[in-house]
Amino acid sequence: MPAPLHPDPQPPPGPPTLPWPHLPGATMTVTYTARVANARFGGFSQLLLLWRGSIYKLLWRELLCFLGFYMALSAAYRFVLKEGQKRYFEKLVIYCDQYASLIPVSFVLGFYVTLVVHRWWNQYLCMPLPDALMCVVAGTVHGRDERGRLYRRTLMRYAGLSAVLILRSVSTAVFKRFPTIDHVVEAGFMTREERKKFENLNSSYNKYWVPCVWFSNLAAQARREGRIRDNSALKLLLEELNVFRGKCGMLFHYDWISVPLVYTQVVTIALYSYFLACLIGRQFLDPAQGYKDHDLDLCVPIFTLLQFFFYAGWLKVAEQLINPFGEDDDDFETNFLIDRNFQVSMLAVDEMYDDLAVLEKDLYWDAAEARAPYTAATVFQLRQPSFQGSTFDITLAKEDMQFQRLDGLDGPVGEAPGDFLQRLLPAGAGMAGGGPLGRRLSFLLRKNSCVSEASTGASCSCAVVPEGAAPECSCRDPPLDPGLPEPEPPPPPPAGPEPLGLIPGPAEPFTTVTVPGPRGPAPPWLPSPIGEEEENLA
């Protein structure tokens, strides 16, 4: 008997609360995309005056501290130290200025910030969004009755509960909103019966995955009841659930495995030690002493302050992005995402389930070429030609576009056929070798020549024929050596009755082999006769 399903828990009665985006101070992410939509003169200059989320808001305290320490040392050098002490302090200034550049601040900061920014964006990609899952639930879990509606809403509530449990484990903003499981129950993400099962589960580890198991069990029950019509639909539903659960798991691992502490310590110590050396090494000295590069006394180190602003601001960027689940100006709006995901998932599987508009012909039903209209502000884009490819603008000369005949080109231009075959052989393997590859290539070369190896002394001549006709060649044997006797012709076969056909013996079987007859005359287009070796290879 299928387990009973409880309706969605109702929130406790009380005064209505505003949605999360309208709460004061709720918006955290600083969005300025619309201000830089088009590149123009001074396009980024208007962003320099923003305070919220700016580098000024992050760095002004450190900058004031650095300037205060610098001015205190400068005042002590000018008004407190005696002459002998001034000379010693001047040597210390020159020493610090000379060796401060040995600290690789730019190198370590560059790698560190690159690592942190990459990690920051990957954490956002792991935010559990239910959009794909809710579409699969709406398309695979059927039933317009109350139980079918209860199945779909409960499945999506379990997915939202899993996201809430993991986000309250990694985000301080969500934890402040749901500090205990009682708050999760009162918010409607969990029923009291589900809370008992959740708390009775004996596990000392984070149990954000428990609602995903409930989801799987409920989907299997819906399959048994026929709400999910086939196993393929159930498989698709569970695959989307695993993607959702995997993102929740990655958030947990990102919170668990931080950037190695030694790397953070190296970067921080390198930056602080560098500017500690700059506090002394960038002091303006008395020009009357004639020290190199100390001809001007400005009291305020303008370029040193700019350098501190850039380097320390670079480190502040990493400090803000290393954990985007806090409450800084540019941290992720996790509470907003919880509200958005819960609302759209319930709308998708409940009110929008099987809610279709009447099918009717679209506006371009009879149009041969469908094209949406343009407003007056965008009609100029219609006059621009469509992009066909980068090679469509290339022009060639008329003679370069003429096709050329490729008759007789067995290899690259300017290369004989034998050279091409010779290059195919491995190093040290010639055609004179006794292997089958060498004999085969030798045969191909002789076949492409006018004189074969079996008739090296024969003389051949070809008549001139019009272009396109087959050449007519004739070859004759070489004259015999006058010192040798002329070979006698073979005796004719004896006359008699024709031999009888083969009669199978009574005892053992035999195989009939066809013996080839004498070779006929070579056709006129063959340059030379084919020897026995060539015939075997062919």
Automatic annotation (TrEMBL):
Residues 471-538 are annotated as: Disordered. Belongs to the anion channel-forming bestrophin (TC 1.A.46) family. Calcium-sensitive chloride channel subfamily. It catalyses: chloride(in) = chloride(out). This is Bestrophin. It is found in: Cell membrane; Membrane. It comes from the Eukaryota. Residues 498-517 have a biased composition (Low complexity). The keyword Protein biosynthesis does not apply. It holds the Pfam family Bestrophin. The chain crosses the membrane at residues 58-80, 92-115, 262-284, 296-314. Forms calcium-sensitive chloride channels. Permeable to bicarbonate. GO terms for cellular component: chloride channel complex; plasma membrane. Keywords: Cell membrane, Chloride, Chloride channel, Ion channel, Ion transport, Membrane, Transmembrane, Transmembrane helix, Transport. It is a multi-pass membrane protein. GO terms for molecular function: chloride channel activity. InterPro entries: Bestrophin, Bestrophin-like. Residues 480-497, 518-527 have a biased composition (Pro residues). The keyword Membrane applies.
